Amino acid sequence: MIIEVNDNIIKKLTPTERDVVNYINSNLNKLSNMSIVDVAEESFTSPATVSRTIKKCGFEGFSELRYKISAKEEYNHDSKKVNEILGKSLIEVTKTIENISITNVLNIVKTIKESKRIYILARGLTELVAQEFNLKMQLLGYNTFLIVDPNIMMNICKTIEKEDLVIAFSLRAETKEIIESVKSAKKSGAKVVTCCCVRKSILEEYSDITIIGYKQSRTSIKEFEVTSRLPLFIISRAIIDYLII
Predict the structure, then answer these.
(1) Which domain holds residue 29?
(2) Which residues sit opposite 168 in a β-bridge?
(3) How many folded domains does the chain comprise?
(4) Among candidates 100, 57, 85, 32, which has minimal Cα distance to 239?
(5) 60: which DSSP letter?
(6) How many CA atoms does the CB half-sphere of 34 hold within 13 Å?
(7) Roughly what angle, to the nearest 10 degrees, separates helices 230-244 and 77-99?
(8) Can you give the pLDDT at residue 184?
(9) Which residues, in sequence order, are bridge partners of residue 169?
(10) Residue 83 and residue 143 share a domain
(11) For residue 30, what are the CA distances in angstroms to 22, 59, 133?
(12) CB under 8 A, 24+ apart: contacts of 19-28
């Protein structure tokens, strides 16, 4: 039994939601391989009902429930490993959202709207995050420039104006060219925003606003710097979605 049902929880559940709980507790050996849609179909309910039931029982969502089942079970080694992988993403998403300061998001949006030009800096795999962010900003009508070439970014930031804004995306916040560029921009009087996954970095020292995501310590491909950029995508989305609103 993965869901312990006490009197307080039973009072919150409808008869249909109790059926969902009974199904989950009776099918633990299958659940780690199932999606929320599968559970809804098997219990003759809907994904919304399954999600609501799980949350009433104290879980953040179906992903957390499935992850906890896989951590306990001994039925299927492969299923357990896949759920551990999915669990890493769940942790990254959850902790990044917890880290994001609402005040900082609001201040970034305000700064973006007040800026004449917006320069977006990124290097390596983080360029993929910056490319998407830049495209969406341009679709919203903002005057943005994506710069990934180290020499260009360092030269442009030396001639930047006070009405401009620099947004730096950097996972580890230690890329030399981005640090030098941000220093130059700050010296010119421009505003600087940093989106990274490291606290108390050099980049943060030179930034007006910093948003910090959560980075996993373990890397799947250890020979290369291919750590997940999911936290940066989440930060990027938070900014873009609020700009749209």
Answers:
(1) 7-98
(2) 121, 194
(3) 2
(4) 100
(5) S
(6) 20
(7) 50
(8) 96
(9) 195
(10) no
(11) 14, 19, 39
(12) 19/43, 19/44, 19/45, 20/45, 20/49, 20/50, 20/53, 20/54, 21/53, 21/57, 24/65, 25/1, 28/1, 28/2, 28/69, 28/73
Q: Which residue, among 42, 41, 53, has the nearest Cα to 15 in the 3D structure?
A: 53
Q: Per the confidence metrics, is the pTM higher than 0.90?
A: no
- Model confidence over 176-218: pLDDT tens digits? 999 999 999 999 999 999 999 998 899 999 999 999 998 876 6
Of 98, 121, 136, the domain-final residue: 98
Q: Which residue has the tokens 């959202």?
A: 97
Q: Record the tokens describing residue 156, joined without a space.
A: 């442009």
- In the chain, the amino acid numbered 198 is V
Other Cβ atoms less than 10 A from the Cβ of 78: the count is 9
Which spans in the chain are helix H?
7-12, 15-26, 28-31, 36-42, 47-56, 62-72, 77-99, 102-114, 126-139, 150-158, 176-187, 202-205, 230-244
* Residues 92 and 104 grouped into a single domain: no
Do the beta carbons of residue 43 and residue 10 sit within 8 Å?
no
Task: Please calculate the CA angle 114-116-120 and round it to the nearest 5 degrees.
Answer: 95
List Cα–Cα distances, 24 to 21, 30, 90, 126, 152, in angstroms: 5, 9, 20, 40, 56
